[in-house]
Amino acid sequence: MKTEILKFYNLVGTFYKSNIVSKDLIIVAIGIPNLKDVDNLRNVDILNMYGYDVFVPDYYWFCRSGWKFSPKSCINTLIDSKKYFSWSNWINVSSWEEKFYKYWRISFLGLSFWWSLVSVLPRFDKSINEIWLFYPALEFSNLWKIWKPEESVDDFYNVIDRWYTNLYNWIKSKSFKDYFRDLTLFTPIKNIKYLNNTSVFIAHWTEDESINYSRSKDFYNKLKTLNNSWDFIYKEYKWTWHSWVTMKYASHEFMHFLDERKQINKN
Fold first, then answer.
1. Distance (Å, rounded) from C-alpha 156 to C-alpha 30?
2. N or C: more exposed end of the chain, with fewer CB within 10 A?
3. Would you state the pLDDT for residue 208?
């Protein structure tokens, strides 16, 4: 595996190159926003082992860039990542070497609280047809009123407000408060109809005390009302929780499912 920091115009991210020559890319959206080098992507070895290159973008308007960080800027980060890796020259920010990348197949993996936003992407780009969600938060308005134990929206927002104020501009803005109250266009549960022609793989652990697994199951059941496609997959992992230990099991199943779809598409 080779790791690089790549840049295309204002978009920067960490790129993990598989030792296997690949035309397949997975764009990963991590959970709580973090500095790109604080915590390496813990399942990247598994993704690379199966022959997939991986890109983890820094979100637009990161740190004190002078503009507004918002749910929409997050979505733009992911959509632009796909666009630029479809046919563009990227620059290695260490060596300033320029290299051309063109991927035929680009999938999205969203983790935890924040990046359940990947499930909204097909609304803005209909060519996005593969989305994978590990322990996602897919709604907020009634979160923690039915299933326990869970972390409250207030607790989560207070952590972001306390620790990330100087990393992301406008984290205290109305757009974020509205997002966490399901009052924006970007709530996954409100955009479920746009997933009708999308492959969706959802994995959740039954002992998760941050986001209750029943919410993922409920979202999956709503997906099945769109159509009864085999492309909607829901996996539960018993006696496990919100951690790397269980992420690795989901990653292997996720890879097998991608490979199955690849073979079907070839035929």
1. 15
2. C
3. 74
